[in-house]
Amino acid sequence: MTKNHGPSIKNDEKYEALRDEGMSKTKAARIANTPKSGKKGGKAKEYEERSEQELYDKAKEVGIAGRSKMTKKELIASLRNS
Question: Of 5-14, 16-25, 31-40, 51-60, which gets the smallest average pLDDT?
Answer without folding.
Answer: 31-40
